[in-house]
């Protein structure tokens, strides 16, 4: 349930525009703004004095409180996927770039006069709750426990739905898939499935709080190293892992494992241990119990066409986001209100 609620809090309708990993051009500063861009006046912020502006995006702003909330959501996502937590500066920049992309697309939705109704948001939230086997009342309670208001969550879902609508209107509706592309994908898929393996993996977690001190981190790593040494020496598994959390991941392909685990698993021999691997929620020791050839599922033409479409759409989306930023006025500020990009 805890993992499912983490997913709910992140919003299951998060669009690829928010999560797309792209190499973005540096934000444009005032002195680099082109002559044909309309001069803008930054609106006065109605935020409290302590809510600093961290970025200007055309005629709107991103505040520190917005960034803080987005950072918290992103940390939850990393934590639930066992991904490695980047350093604070890198994490802040990644999340801020995502917020800028969101802001640009929401601004574009207003120019296009697109609408998402309250009824559509309600329907989407009901779908999310149903997929996660919780009632709306249970969802609201979980949100409250984590410091979210239901109205804030509705706004989050509305924004994500609007971004998806913008992408469908401007990009997805214009994409076409040729028979040649489908045939080429089929050929690649057939070659790939002949080599796919599945791995039976156990995850041993030595947990750490998100606000752990340097001393606590060193102690947890030392404990993880000691446990791994005991296991590699043939020690009793139950005794060695008594104060840890054991997760049986079952049979999975590399693409189904967190990147942190997959990178280690593909180099392991059956029966071996790897780690400790540091993630947002602590140190992990992984045990490769067994391997087998992956059972292959034959995809029909419709499923293949959908996969080809998603791959092509992802590429078009990345290019479009870069172009969207090139035509925008973006100025990133540091915590003191100075321009980072000058």
Describe the overall structure:
With about 350 residues, this protein is α+β, with helices and mostly antiparallel strands. The protein has 2 domains: about 1-175 and about 320-330, Porin chaperone SurA, peptide-binding domain (Triger factor/SurA peptide-binding fold, Orthogonal Bundle), CATH 1.10.4030.10; about 195-295, Chitinase A, domain 3 (Roll), CATH 3.10.50. It has helices spanning about 1-10, 15-20, 65-80, 90-110, 120-130, 135-145, 150-170, 180-195, 215-230, 235-240, 260-265, 300-325; strands at about 55, 60-65, 195-205, 245-250, 275-280, 280-295, 330. The strands form 2 sheets. A 4-stranded antiparallel sheet has the order 4-3-6-5, sandwiched between helices. Strands 2-1-7 form a 3-stranded antiparallel sheet.
Key traits:
342 residues; alpha+beta; four-stranded antiparallel sheet; disordered N terminus; Triger factor/SurA peptide-binding fold; three-stranded antiparallel sheet; globular
What overall geometry do the principal axes of the alpha carbons give? globular
Query: Measured on Cα atoms, how large is the radius of gyration?
Result: 23 Å
**How would a textbook summarize the main sheet?**
4 strands, antiparallel
The CATH class of the largest domain: Mainly Alpha
CATH architecture of the largest domain: Orthogonal Bundle
Order of helices and strands: HHEEHHHHHHEHHEHEEHE
CATH topology of the largest domain: Triger factor/SurA peptide-binding fold
Mean pLDDT reading = 79
The poorly predicted ranges are 1-49, 336-342
Estimate the helix proportion, in percent. Answer: 40-55%
């Amino acid at each position: 349930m805890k993992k499912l609620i983490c997913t709910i809090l992140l919003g299951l309708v998060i669009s690829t525009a928010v999560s797309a990993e792209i190499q973005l051009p540096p934000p444009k500063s005032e002195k680099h703004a082109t002559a044909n861009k309309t001069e803008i006046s930054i609106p006065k912020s109605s935020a409290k004095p302590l809510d600093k502006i961290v970025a200007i995006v055309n005629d709107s702003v991103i505040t520190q409180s917005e960034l803080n909330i987005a950072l918290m959501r992103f940390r939850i996502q990393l934590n639930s996927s066992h991904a490695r937590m980047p350093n604070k500066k890198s994490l802040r920049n990644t999340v801020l770039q995502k917020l800028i992309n969101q802001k640009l697309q929401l601004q574009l939705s207003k120019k296009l006069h697109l609408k998402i109704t309250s009824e559509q948001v309600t329907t989407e939230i009901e779908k999310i709750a149903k997929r996660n086997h919780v009632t709306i009342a249970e969802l609201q309670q979980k949100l409250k426990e984590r410091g979210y208001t239901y109205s804030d969550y509705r706004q989050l879902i509305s924004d994500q739905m609007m971004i998806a609508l913008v992408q469908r209107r401007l990009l997805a509706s214009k994409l076409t898939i040729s028979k040649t592309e489908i045939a080429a994908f089929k050929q690649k898929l057939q070659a790939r499935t002949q080599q796919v393996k599945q791995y039976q993996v156990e995850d041993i977690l030595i947990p750490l709080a998100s606000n752990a001190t340097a001393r606590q981190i060193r102690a947890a790593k030392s404990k993880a190293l000691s446990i791994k040494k005991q296991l590699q020496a043939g020690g009793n598994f139950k005794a060695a892992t008594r104060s840890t959390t054991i997760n049986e991941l079952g049979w999975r392909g590399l693409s189904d494992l967190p990147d942190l685990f997959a990178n280690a698993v593909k180099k392991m021999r059956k029966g071996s241990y790897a780690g400790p691997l540091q993630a947002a929620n602590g140190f992990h020791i992984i045990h490769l119990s067994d391997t087998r050839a992956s059972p292959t599922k034959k995809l029909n033409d419709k499923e293949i066409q959908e996969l080809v479409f998603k791959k092509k759409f992802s590429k078009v989306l990345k290019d479009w986001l870069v172009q969207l930023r090139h035509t925008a006025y973006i100025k990133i500020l540091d915590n003191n209100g100075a321009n980072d990009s000058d």
